[in-house]
Amino acid sequence: MKELWDIKIIREILERHRFNFSKSLGQNFLVNRNICPAMAQEAVENGEVSAIEIGPGIGILTQELALRAKKVLAVEIDTRLLPVLDETLAQFDNVEILNADILKLDIPSLIEEKFSGEDVVVCANLPYYITSPVIMHFLESKSRIKSLTVMVQKEAADRLCAEVGSREAGAVSVAVNYYAEAQKLFNVSKGSFYPQPKVDSAVIKLTMRREPPVEIKDEKLFFRVVKAAFSQRRKTAANGISSGLGADKSEVVAAIEESGLDPNVRAEKLTMEQLARLTDCIKDRI
What we know:
Layout lengths: L6 H10 L12 E2 L4 H10 L5 E5 L5 H9 L3 E5 L5 H7 L6 E5 L7 H9 L4 E6 L5 H9 L5 E9 H7 L10 H9 E9 L4 E2 L6 E8 L10 H11 L7 H9 L3 H10 L13 H14 L1
Parallel strand pairs: 2-3, 2-5, 3-4, 5-6
Antiparallel strand pairs: 1-8, 6-9, 7-9
Helix pairs in contact: 2-3, 6-8, 8-9, 9-10, 9-12, 10-11, 11-12
């Protein structure tokens, strides 16, 4: 198995395939030999599941997943990396490379086709520019995903794992908490990548919930309310919600008061239960 964490080996492979890094695709390959085994172990755990990887790069994490999972489906958007992966993953017969944009794939159909509908895990070193879209794409798919173990920008990790009702929380924190239990596993320094990015990263694990933590009359309205409430963080939740929903502010304030909250409350102060209750009151009034 090629030591893909070795910069000399990486450079030799990339030069042979005449590959240049793409800034637009956020390509930074891991060169810390300890990170990928730890990520793969956290993701696969008992080895009885298959895995989906997004953006395998040259295959360093893919190799570790292949050693532990039943099957690995690595989704790579960059066609230039396909011959590289053919070389670095040649010894693994349980790896399939799919040249596609993960955001354009129907996840439930993909799992049914590639894994016969079995439960799978997601594991990836996500490019910073598509972190939230990719995570939400999987969370909202309502597919047979057991967990997502992903590396993201450290600041994004703090936000994704923030407790709802805390200052660090945002709309994405609420969305993640609705679908999964979030856990920050460990930090990864920027020196662990080639080329080196400007910021540090962190690995987080999102374990899918069987049921949402709150009961809501209208799920779509809930997420509309959450998005609107956090859209103007310096203003009150009432201002954000009335503006975002195009609703009369007095009605929104009445719904806030009806749900037992201060009419001047800010979104970051609201817990999951309070947001759920507020949404139900808004649905009844507006």
